[in-house]
Structure formats: structure tokens, C-alpha cells
Amino acid sequence: MINMNSNDIRKKFLEYFKQQKHQIEPSSSLIPDDPTMLLTTAGMVQFKPFFLSLVKPKNTRITTVQKCVRTTDVEQVGHTPRHHTFFEMLGNFSFGDYYKKEAIIWGWELLTKGYKLDKSRMYVTIFHNDEEAYKIWKDDIGLPDERILRLGEDSNFWSAGPTGPCGPSSEIMWDMGAELACSKNCLPGVCDCDRWLEVWNLVFMQYDRDEEKKLTELPKKNIDTGMGLERLASVLQGVKTNFETDLFMPIISTISKLSGSKLGSDKKKDISIKVIADHSRALTFMINDGVLPSNEGRGYVLRRLIRRTVRHGRLLGIKGLFLNDLVDEVIALMNNTYPDLQTNKTYIRQIVENEEDKFSHTLKQGTAILEEQIKVSKKEKKKMLCGQIVYKLYDTYGFPMELTSEIAKESGLAVNEKEFDKLMGAQKEKARAAWKDETGSKEAYAQALEKAGATAFTGYEELTADTKVKVIIQDGKINKKAKAGQEVEIVLEKTPFYAEKGGQVGDTGIIQNTKTKIEIVDTLNPIDELVTHKGKVVKGEISSGDSVQAVVLGNRRRAIARAHTATHLLHWSLRSVLGEHVKQGGSLVSEDKLRFDFTHFQALTDKEISEVESKVNKMILEGLPVRCYTTTLEYAKQSGAMALFGEKYGNFVRLVEAGDISKELCGGTHLSNTAKIGMFKITSESSVGASLRRIEAICGQKAMQLVNDQENTLSSLAAMFKVAPAELEKKAQAVLNELSQKDSQINKLKRGSAGQEIEDLVRKAQSVGSSKLIVTTVNEADMDTLRQYCDVLRNKLGSSIVLLISAVCGRVLIVAAATKDLVEKGFDSGKWLAKVAPVVGGSGGGRSGLAQAGGKDTKKIPEALKAAEDYVIKWSKGKGQGTA
Questions:
Q1: 61-94 b/e with 16+ CB inside 10 Å = b?
Q2: What is the residue extent of each domain of the chain?
Q3: Which helix (H) or strand (E) is 205 found in, with range?
Q4: Could you tell me how far CA 853 lies from the centroid of its own chain?
Q5: Distances (CA, A) of 341 to 202, 300, 598
Q6: Please, which residues bridge with residue 777 across strands?
Q7: Furthest-apart CA pair in the chain: how many Å?
Q8: What is the reported pLDDT for 161?
């Protein structure tokens, strides 16, 4: 066995399979293309369409080192030597090419000859009836029977779901040492103890399972293998846990410096050190791939990891913000393999600091509340923390339910998740929530692609094309023809229609010939390389094989292109004004408007919005040429082109340049010159999530129309005030000043009349025992006035109880008050209103000395006054003991 660092382990793996004629593919983003998945959890995720035969691969042999995030066992992280949230999966894949023999022989050869692992310390497991794999391990590899273990479906059979592709697997296990054995009969694949380490899992996709559980041999069998880099590193570097490898130790060293705690000195602290080391890798890579903290989906996963990390930092005694020290270490450690980490370093740090700072403010208070509730629950001998407390911690203090559950578990308590979920309702979707696939029938699209081949797009050069109908899809099924009145999706041999992608909406138009006309309302790209035209047959009949003319609605396409080019200028302008941390988080480009989501940490000021808008319009006026061309990904990156987070690019990309200022990788349609945009106008700026802002804007004729409308409004207002438009602001300020002066005069008059009204109210006071009672109406008084009157009356009357009601604009306003001596005797104004307010169809509340309420039934005011008096008289007869 040779001692090898993690960089060399990756390199040797890829080079070995390159020698076996595999195409080396880069790691895909942690944000998968598959809408049913939150995060990339395995090496095979990016190749799922190949395994499901939805898309035909260009290369039948592929190898990767894939970034992965899994949080299903997040509570185990730090408690075991091998559980992680972020990890790298070394994998080799075959799509209908080689099969079991090659996969097993190559895997064994790489481990024993490439990495020089000791054969005597390796065992393998196979599916119990997989005789083919058994013979390869025994006859070709030469393993004795005692080192080939047969296991059941739970351990050695893989499937994508209850139906579909599936097959047996074979795992290569490493003996970490007899001293770690859990018993005398400790066996690999059977015992889940620390002695046996699963190094490599070889999955043989051999069958198709139908709804009746029947297995049918696949005509083309696939291979999917996965080997955890962290696990292999622990073996090659001769350490007992993954955390002792070169992938973690530099991070752990930084944690030790921050906390003063060393790994191995204290079991509880060791757990926190490992959790922080693990999570710091996950959060760095997730943000780098475009995930932002939020309360739903993958953003919730990220937020939960950040907050767990902060909490474990506090358990180690780390005070203040510390996560960015770890982010820096992760980037320094991994940027040779993932250079985009260094490129996005400032951005990652800002997101982390913002989220950590926000949670740090509430962590101490929330923890104190939780600890108090745990004490109360234990004292009352309860075994479960109520869902209301869990919800309050989530809603008010930002504690993810799982974090509360974890802390409670440390004290031997469970959490009432059902009650929590009920309180959360539909508004708080957790990370495990299922996502729906909205792209329609995948099977029909896969069949269409197989039948028609890739759709050639000619829309960059033309808006009209003579072409042929290749496939007709109706209700998720392929049909040969469609008649007038029927809705269809048409697949053409070639098309000038742009399919919705990258934020740009799909084209509309018509598909026609002399006998047929189809109105196209949308163009879609349901799976890679396939374009479908969604519309309705309005004339005649359409059949597969028909020759047709495809015509894009030109004015709409040009309006969309105008908005798309303007979006690129907006992106450049935002980075210029706000800083290079600004990155696109999403967009919508349509004929009516454009919407651009971007990373930023606070609302834009009016000055910033004006500056962003001005810079865009300046570039429009300069009439910059817009060039669109295909080039290599490497050249595009070297030229400074911006790529989108989470987007997967091939070796060749389309580069869009506006003059020398804006360069972006983009497949959308654009103008040939920025001057053709005409005018650009921002209509709104808002927040759409933590550290994510949104700008909406219009351009071209719509922007001009908005400016004209605003000018007309300005002229109308100027005419109303009888001044020139340029003098309107000055005139408006003068009118406001005049109104303010008149308000002051009115208030003085009110105070004068109020004195008389107060005296009138005092005369209405009746005696209740040794105290005074006023229950009456006040004409058109607002709530503030009623409260002021109550204060004055209590001061004038001494020991007293007061209830005043006013009707304003069809609403009933009520204020109730009592002096301190009566409150001490048990009178409660809040309880008083609880009896009175429902009479007028209202409710309210407050303190014992002062409470207020509102209602909506003004006709019931006399009844409310009667109910108020009756309540006080009854209370008084109870000798001030509050028996009412």
C-alpha cells in the first residue's frame, strides 16, 4: 500500500479509466437537472437520463469525480468515522457497453496494482443468487469462497424505484483491523461496526422490474460504480477515520486554533469538531454552486447546516463570527481541484457572514428558551417536547426543527413532529418535501427523441423554415395524426422556434402548409436535444411526415431579444455599481418585461437604482455591437465570460458579447446592436429571499410608453396646481407645509373643545360603591383620542372605571380603563372588553388597567353600553373580588 494524498488519488482514478477508454467528465453542479431531486447525492445523478434510456449518451464509457451532498444521516455526522454531508464520489459508468467482468476486473486491478492495497485485507459481497459475479470474483480474480459473502436484497440489490432499471451489486470491503471487531463472529457486510469499511460499490443494472415485480433482462445493461474519496483516502493514508485524512485535518487544525480544543482530547468536543469540519465543506460547496439560505427546498438544507455549525461552534466556546475562517481553509484546500471556489470566494464569504450573523443574534436567546423547556419537561416527567415550542423556536428564533430535535435528543427527549407540522402548514416546506415534475410525459418525449433524433435549431439565422413533421404528441402519447380542434405537441425535423430555456420564454407562431394550420402558443425543451411545439390545430389535419412551413411571430421574437440583451446589460451594470459579488440567481425574459434575480445583501437605494438604470441606457445610446458566436469553454473562461451558477456546459459554448463590457455564456436570442433596445426603465426592486434581490424592468416601446404616461401625469398635476411641471415639487412642498400648519390649528381647536367635552363626560359619571363609572359614547373620535380621554378622566375622577365608544367610518372603536386601586382589587379591563366587544361583532385585548377593541356593528352600540354597565355593577356587588 502506498501513502497517497487526495489530489493524487483523484488523478490516478481518472487516469486509470481514461486508459480504459473512458471519457473524463467534470463534476456536475450540486443543483441537479432532475426536478425530483433537491441535491446531487451520487455520481450517477447527472447520468440518470442515460440509465433510464431517456437520452442517448455520446460516450458509452464515462468516469467522474462527483461532488455530492446527502443529509439523510446528518445526525450521525461526528458520531462515526465515515458519515458526511459533503463527499466526493469516484465513479466509472458504462451505458450498454462493458458489463460485470470488466467492472470487477478493472476495479480490483486499480485497487491492488494502482493503489497497491493489500489483497489479504479485502473482502467482497455479492447478491445471494448472482452466480455470474461469484464466478468472476472466484475464477478471474482468485478470491477464496470465505472472502466472497452472499447477501440479500437490502444490502446488495439496487433500484431507482419500485419499477424500472435495477440489478445486483457487489461491494468491496476493507478490513480496518481486528482490534475494531465488535465480536468474535464479526463479518463484512453483516456487521455495521468500524472494522469493515465499504470502499467501492459496483452496481450492475441488469433488469427492468414491472409493476408485478417481474424482472426482465435489459437488452443493454449498464454499470454504475461509486467509491468515496474520503474512505479511500483513510485507507491509503493509514488512519482510522476519514476525519484524520488530508481532506479534513487542515480544517480541524483551524477549528482547534479558534476553540482551543484538540481532536481526541474530549469525546463530546470531538463530535462538535467533526460536525463543524464536515459542514464547513458542505456549506462552502453548496453556496459556490448557487444554493442560497432559505426556508424551503435546498436552501433550507443549507440554512440548517449553517445553523448546526454555528451551534456546535458555541458548544466549543467559540464566540463571534467564525465560519469564514473555515470557508477560507476549505477553499485553500480544494481550489486546485475546483478553481471556481477561489473565483467565488468573496461571494461565498458574504453569504456565509450574512447568514451566520443573523442566526448568532437569536441563538443565545433561543437556546435559553429551549433549555428551560427541557428542564420543565423533565420536571413534569414528559418524554416529548410539545410542537408549539418547536414551532416558536423555528418561527421566532430561526431554529430548524431538526436542530431543536437534536438538542432535545441529547437530553433524552423526543419532539412532537406531528404537532409542529400541523402548525407549520403548507407555508413551510422542508428539505425532504417532494418536488413535482412538470415537464409532462418523459416516456413519450424519450420515444419522440429516439424516433425523430435531435431537433436542429435554425432560429439564430431565420424566423421561417421549410421542414417536416417527425412526431405528434397528444395527451402524453405519440399519435400519427391530429385533426382540427385538437391540442398537440409537434416535433419538427428542424425549427426556427426558440424553446423556453435559460429564462427566455418559448417562441409562438404558426406551423402550416396548404391544407393545415397550427397555432403555436409555446415552444418547449422537455428533454435534452428535443424541441416540442405546443399548439392547436385550427385548420385541416396534420400527419407525421408532412412537409410544413414553420413561422415564428417576428415582432414578439424581436421584443424578447430586446429584453434579453437588456438583461445582459443590467447584469453588467449591477456588478459595476454594487460589486462583483452580484451573480444571477434567475431570470425571466419575455416580450412584455424582464425580471432579474441577483445576489445582494440589502435593498438598493434610490440612488443605486438610478445609477444602474443610467449605465444601461448609456450603453444603449453608445450603440455597442452585439456578437454571438460558438467557442471553446476554456477560451470563454479565459476571456472573462460570466457563466451561470448550476449550469452545465459542454466543451463548446455560445458566447454573447456586448461591446467590450458584457460577456456571458448564453444560448438565447439577441439583438445585433444595443441601440435597438431603444430605452430601458426599472419598474421595481424587491427582496425574493435571503441575500436575493429582484429587479423588474421594461424596454423599447413599453419603456417609452411608461415615460410618456408619467409625463402626462406630471403635466396633469402641474395643471391642477397651476404651475409649470418644473415647479411642481416646490409647489407640492409648499402645500404640504400649509396643510401641516392647518393641522396644528385644528388640533388646538380640538384641544379647546376637548376640555369642554371632558367636563361634560365627568358630569355623566355615576357612583358604583366608592368609585366612579363612565360608560358612554364620544362622537367620531379615533383610538388615540379615546385613550387620551380615558387617561384624563381617570386623573380627574380618582378611583374610577371608564369605557368610551366611538363610531368612525362604519367601525366601532372601544377603549376601557380602570385606576390602579381597582385593578389591585381584581378589576380587569381586558376581561371587561372580552364581554363587551362581541356585542358589536368585534374583539380586542390589553392590560388590566387599559384595553382596546374594535367592532363592525354600529347599530349594537346601545346594547354594548348596557352590557358594559351590567358587568361593572355585577363586579361591584362581588365586593371588588372580580366575580363577574
A1: bbbbbbbbbbbeebeebbeebbbbbbbbbbbbbb
A2: 6-245, 297-427, 442-552, 557-707, 723-758, 764-877
A3: strand 196-209
A4: 41
A5: 31, 22, 19
A6: 805
A7: 111
A8: 65
- Topology of the domain comprising 557-707: Threonyl-tRNA Synthetase; Chain A, domain 2 (3.30.980)
- Are 459 and 497 in contact, with CB atoms under 8 Å apart? yes
pLDDT in tens, 685-736: 999 877 889 999 999 999 999 999 999 999 999 999 999 999 999 999 999 9
- Contact yes or no for 167/205 (Cβ under 8 A): yes
| 442-552 maps to CATH 2.40.30.130 | yes
CATH architecture of 6-245: 2-Layer Sandwich (3.30)
Q: What is the CA radius of gyration of the chain?
A: 36
Measure the CA–CA gap between 28 and 648, rounded to whole angstroms.
7
Q: Which helix (H) or strand (E) holds 474?
A: strand 464-474
Q: What is the pTM of this model?
A: 0.66
Per-residue pLDDT tens digits for 36-86:
788 999 999 888 888 877 788 889 999 999 999 999 888 899 999 999 999
| Amino acid in the structure at residue 777 | T
| Phi, psi at 46, each rounded to 5° | -70, -15
How do beta strands 487-492 and 532-539 pair? antiparallel
- Nearest residue to 804 (alpha-carbon basis) of 769, 832, 828, 768: 832
C-alpha distances out from residue 385 to 363, 369, 410, 425, 469, Å: 19, 12, 13, 19, 63
pLDDT tens figures, 211-243: 888 888 888 899 999 999 999 999 999 999 999
Question: What DSSP letter does each residue of 169-198 carry, written as one string?
Answer: EEEEEEE--GGG-SSTT--TTT--STTEEE
Number of H helices, E strands in the chain: 25, 35
Terminus-to-terminus CA distance in the chain, angstroms? 87
- Integer Cα distance of 695 and 609 in angstroms: 9
Which grid cell is 313?
461552534
Q: Is residue 437 within 8 Å of 402, Cβ to Cβ?
A: no
Distance CA 803, CA 820 (A): 15
CA 734 to the chain's CA centroid: 49
